[in-house]
TrEMBL record, chain A:
Coiled coil: none annotated. Belongs to the prokaryotic molybdopterin-containing oxidoreductase family. It comes from Geodermatophilus amargosae. This is Formate dehydrogenase major subunit. InterPro entries: Mopterin_OxRdtase_4Fe-4S_dom (IPR006963). One of its GO terms (biological process) is anaerobic respiration. Its cofactor is [4Fe-4S] cluster. GO terms for cellular component: cell envelope. It is found in: Cell envelope. Keywords: 4Fe-4S, Iron, Iron-sulfur, Metal-binding, Oxidoreductase. It comes from the Bacteria.
UniProtKB/TrEMBL annotation, chain B:
GO terms for biological process: cellular respiration; formate oxidation. Its cofactor is [4Fe-4S] cluster. PANTHER family: FORMATE DEHYDROGENASE, NITRATE-INDUCIBLE, IRON-SULFUR SUBUNIT (PTHR43545). Pfam families: Fer4_11. [4Fe-4S] cluster 3 binds at C177, C180, C185, C219. The keyword Kinase does not apply. Residues 1-23, 109-134 are annotated as: Disordered. This is Formate dehydrogenase iron-sulfur subunit. GO terms for cellular component: cell envelope. [4Fe-4S] cluster 2 binds at C60, C236, C239, C251.
Automatic annotation (TrEMBL), chain C:
GO terms for biological process: anaerobic respiration. Its main location: other. This is Formate dehydrogenase major subunit. The lineage of its organism: Bacteria, Bacillati, Actinomycetota, Actinomycetes, Geodermatophilales. CDD domains: MopB_CT_Formate-Dh-Na-like. Residues 4-391, 422-462 form the Molybdopterin oxidoreductase domain.
Amino acid sequence: MKTWLDAWPVFRQLTGPDPLGRGAAARSRATENVVSRTATADRVVQSVCPYCAVGCGQRIFVKDEQIVQIEGDPDSPISRGRLCPKGSASKSLVTSPTRVTTVKYRRPYGTEWEDLELDTAMEMIADRVLEARRKGWQDENGGKRVNRTMGLASLGGATLDNEENYLMKKLYSAMGAIQIENQARI
Amino acid sequence: MTSISSASPAFTGRDPDNRLFGPLPDVQGEAGYDTDHPARVGFFTDTSVCIGCKACEVACKEWNTLPMDDSHGVRDVIGLSGMSYDNTGQLGANSWRHVAFIEQTRTVDLPTPTFGRPGDDRQGSGPSVAEGQNDDSLATAQQSGVLNAEALSEFDPQTGQTGSDKQIRWLMSSDVCKHCTHAGCLDVCPTGALFRTEFGTVVVQGDICNGCGYCVPACPYGVIDQRKDDGRVFKCTMCYDRLTDGLQPACATACPTQSIQFGNLEELQARADARLATLQGQGVETARLYGRDEDDGVGGAGAFFLLLDEPEVYGLPPDPVVTTRDLPSMWRAAAAGAAMMVGVVVSAFVGRRPR
Amino acid sequence: MAECHPVGFQWVAEAKARGAKVVHIDPRFTRTSAIADLHVPLRMGTDIAFLGGLIRYVLDNELYFKEYVVAYTNAAALVGEDFVDAEDLGGLFSGFDPEHNQYDEASWQYEPEEAPHSGSDDPAGAAEQDRKEQDPEIKKTDKAQAAGSGGPPIPAKPKRDETLQHPRTVFQVLKRHFARYTPEMVAEVCGIEPEVFLQVARWVTENSKRDRTTAWVYSVGWTQHSVGAQYIRTCSILQTLLGNIGRPGGGILALRGHASIQGSTDVPTLYNLLPGYLPMPHAMQHATLDEYCADAAGKAGFWGNKRSYTVSLLKAWWGDAATAENDFCFDYMPKIDGDHSSYRQIADMIQGKIAGYFLVGENPTVGHPNGRMNRFGLANLDWLVVRDLQMIESATFWKESPEIETGELAPETIATEVFFVPAASHAEKEGTFTQTQRLLQWRHKAVEPPGDAKSDLWFYYHLGRMLRERLADSTDPRDRPLLDLTWDYPTHGPDQEPSADAVLREINGVGPDGHAVSGYMELKDDGSTTCGCWIYSGVYADEVNQAARRKPGREQGQVASEWGWAWPYNRRILYNRASADPDGKPWSERKKYVYWDEEAGRWTGADNPDFEATKRPDYVPPDGARAQDAIGGSDPFIMQGDGKAWLYAPAGVVDGPLPTHYEPAESVVENALYKQQANPTIEHIEGPWNRENPALSPVFPFQVTTYRLTEHHTAGGMSRTLPYLSELQPEFFVEVSPELAALRGLTNGDYATLVSTRTAIEAKVLVTERMRPIRLRSGQVVHQIGMPYHWSYSGISTGDSANDLLGIVLDPNTHIQEDKVSTADIRPGRRPRGPALIDFVESYRRRAGVGSGRVGVNGRDPVAAEAGEGSQL
């Protein structure tokens, strides 16, 4: 009976120290149960902001294998926990509903995208790389040995990891591709 | 044994404890929290260091998962506002932080703040007032804490190379709910949806709000707002949920230059007073605190500001008054009226003859 | 900085709170200007004049840091008698070859103290390499950048005059060169008041030398010019004269614009570089490993070990196949022989010379100048692979681009196969970014990527695996490099994600004992060590991922050495031996940083010394010393061949040994300093799709600059697609002054059309006093238009693309485009639509007297278009 009565704000207002019913007496069930999703996260992962080159530290909160919050990492001596609007939008970036998460394929002279399995796409790309490499191959140019292909080119963004850039340069060089560029030129 | 309180000014028509108006040293205690409640917290927004980056707006929306302004995420309804870099326009149900951008052009001096801490030795680190006008026109310009090059041209009209001899000042300020000591929204809320938290902040409880909208006109700042496709009202919660986890609100956490400072309100007030003194000492006479004064119309705000110009310039009311200030006198009048009504009704019954 | 690097700006704000003066030099009044002590609104494209004025002010008023300059720079070196300065040749230096628009640097050399290369192991080879450097074909390939952190070879030890009085000392040459950069000239060229200039000069010089330092910060606002490298040179000269390099609170800080753009240069996906700024082998220069390393043979400093770095790289790539007998597979390395940079590639694509193209997190049809030319390039490929998070415009050019609207492109004519292969985000993979101060920070993986999205590490690892499998039975020697490649990274998880950790360890390098090396000093040229990027060597020292260290900043000193890892050797300020005087003592107590501890017999201080730890300050290299042993104990600039900072560059900068003010390629103003209007060595790419607005053309009377806004990111793929950022800047707009608005009838909030010889675009107009016209002494008024460049047709926030308006002319040192200054016309209202747009722009081209921009099918010129479809390969 008492509990039932206590759940009734007017009773609390009339009987408690909050006669105007503007504070303690007005607290709802949801308010009493409020919890920060930083507190309920399964884990917090330390990361780095993907936008500009300041390199602000980020803390990524994960719950049920979903990212529930990304905010500044106060441990970072670079950023001291702060983020700009872009960095603050990182959760939207990663969880964006308009992210394309399947392969899209446009055939020659096609007017629409088509769906493609990732494995199929990889096979097709590998075939085309070898073909382009062959077509553009030069043992020599102007009488000098060059040992390369001019058939393919690559342009990377500058949000690539060092490890990714390294594998790219290594693989491209091994296949003889030299027209390898990056946003760093731009 | 519980006893029914009759202390409410709503009942008594009197407000000796400043429950509706005037200074109130312990807002949480007044709202029924035990004496060991946490200290009242707030925001001190120092606009003199605001760089207008809007991290506060985005961090707020990310944490509180607010809708985009048109609620559909398709295209911004406002479009380019044409008002400097402000495309948010105002605080609303979906925008709990709003950075105002004010471009000012004057042909006269506009003293601008230099960063500084009280007691710092300014010698050798730039011009000071003490150096006086011993040099040339330039020293005069420096002395006034000049912001940009255009201002200097005024002191040497002969050269006149610039296309205009105007001086530009670009003010930026992140506005937010004031979390008033006397919050009109809270006072008029008939459902108890709005409440005072143990931190002294004012928060809407979404599970209670029925969308009556009484609070909307009750806010002297025009902060609280109804969400169109929802009906309920929304505004800044000062990240009540984060506070329960010992974190700062999302906006203050993100703010790169600490223009938005969160903390114990009394400490923030002291910090703000010192900052104001520093700026004024540097000749920034237009600097002022807004919402700091507990004798103002809302009993002082939980979120207050250091401004560099008149509040109206930033779109803030110059003299906000809690709409329930006159509630006790209204109640007295209403009570008298009600008593009269009761008397009339009673006499009507009394005077009625049974058939 | 507040605009584009807001969180970095907190340190500027903090410095300001401690009394530092903040000066913002920018044509545009930005959020940085708003809280700077002084905003200097110089005319766009005039920074060298401004900085040159500061250099003159420093020299004329004897405000340079004398002890520093004499000891640590080449100020005392004598320049050879053949050198003729731009002062005496109307803006050209000696050695100009008008046929190739290039310089021969021979006449820029020092006067040698002794015969060249006396200390060289292979003097003939080195001399031969030096001679080849001047070949026009080699020059085109970007040798300046290949010299990178090492500095180009200098053929001889120069004669010196420590009094700096000899008229041919670098110091005196410098003085004469900058003599005409007076405050009045600066005011005239830059369009600012002389008092403003003098104020900056006073603040900069008062806050430099023993007790104080001044820092300069730039972003691509400096690099994206036809004289971009020289902008930075000018600042380097100023900072060196003031003793602001290698010292705390000093330096020139490049604020780079992407999370790992520094890393993308260090571990380059750039055509002219191998990891660690080793040059890509050149067909005319580097037939063998010996030839490749010959220039380092006699070189002092750490570049003297080029052979060790190179052999270790070859061993990392080709493992056991690389032996001393086969030159460590040096021949496997493909060779370059010209400019193969990004914009050349686009031109080649239009001509059908390139079949396949990978775009990996890049959106060139929006982010690069001349979007139309870029789209024509893509339309002439056989296939295109796009890896990104969102459906960016570079993947949809074939169905939605502006040229589809004009009819210049149509899906029915475009044969390009397009694969959009979704990428993982930064939170869905692990790896390192290198931020703007060379700091590597490891990201831990938070969650799995959604759907078919995969990391680029995954994509390239598996692509390589598949290629190798397909070629496994090949006997073609061309396939050996692929088949012999070390490609056995451990994988994990259901998707067989390769281990980024293992890749980082390979980058670090492994010693003969099979353990990770602790740094590049351990690398050998005998094939016993491996190392994927020598400057990163040490990032996996002690078998620990040093980049993943995260000791909280508040628990560390100011330098925070235990957060992440900076190359080289976790040194946070480069050349920090210069923070001590020649004897190794701090220049001042206030600026104490790294200094010699006589008792301990080593360098010590707040940072790791960027110097051999136990090399005494009084060390004098013995005769015949090489590499680092040839660097004296008081020579802090250990990557330079002479250990000195260069006030004058006798080699390595292709457009002059000293910076010179030239007007931008597209300028409405005549060069007030020299007869030579623009950089004579500018690189042009010609075609109907890349017409240039003539300088001083009344048809294109206004200057335009492009920039970013805080609320958006580069080409917009990571911001226009997000609601919270889109609503903050919801549409493409341009900023104009009230004066220009009145002149052209533009209304705030309405549309305007901007026109160039490339195309016409429309934008909303923001009329603001923050943009200002500049009235020059001649009476000419220069109107400037500001264009943020984030937009295109996709996403939530949309508009025309600013970069479509711009053409492509390149800095000859870097092949970076000049997009910070161009010209255009502006008029009220929306642009013509459909084919009418082509006629509209063509009418402007006609009036300006430039060639037609009309193109044939898919952007090819009509003749080529008739020749056939698809690639010509």
